[in-house]
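pinging the channel bc i need a second pair of eyes. not urgent but kinda urgent?? the chain im working w is below, pasted from the shared doc
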Amino acid sequence: MKLPPTVFLDVVDSTNSWLRRKAREVPAGTAVAADYQTAGRGRGDRRWHSPPGGAAMFSLLWPRGEAPREELGRLSVGLARTVAELLAADYGVKAEVKPPNDVLAGGKKLCGILLEECGDRLIVGVGINTNLDPEELPEGVDAVSLSGLCGSKIDNRRLIERLIPAIAEYLSASLVPLTREDNG
């Protein structure tokens, strides 16, 4: 599937919520990214906090295919693995997947994945701590930042532009389309 251009926003309530509102208006493969989310969230309505520019945050709208609900957990783990592999390849970060949806580095949270159903589509939300100071996080949040691991500021837009095709490739290989053409 050819991906439409990513929508880059300065501020949004939540990239997942934005896609949910626009799901009937935009084609599958649409991604939205934001520099700052006022109401970012993770699994179980946990709050996702990051100062402006502190995280690479985006969501991707994808055809659900025939994936039964019980397979979505497996899909989240695969998505987290895809992120971990790209971070290792591009930034030399040794990251591990903590099922069902987290990427850790040194035992601390580096990335979270939020997979939500939206009719016959899925919304894949990704948030990677990139340029935040762990001191700015709320008390009790045990997280790490990619810039702290690499020793330099991360270009969030570049990271997002690398991750979206990698995630799309994983989803294309993992989900069986709802409609199949019979060539026989």
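so The first strand starts at residue 7 and ends at 12. and Residues 7-174 form a domain with the BirA Bifunctional Protein; domain 2 fold (CATH 3.30.930.10). — does that match what u expected or am i reading it wrong
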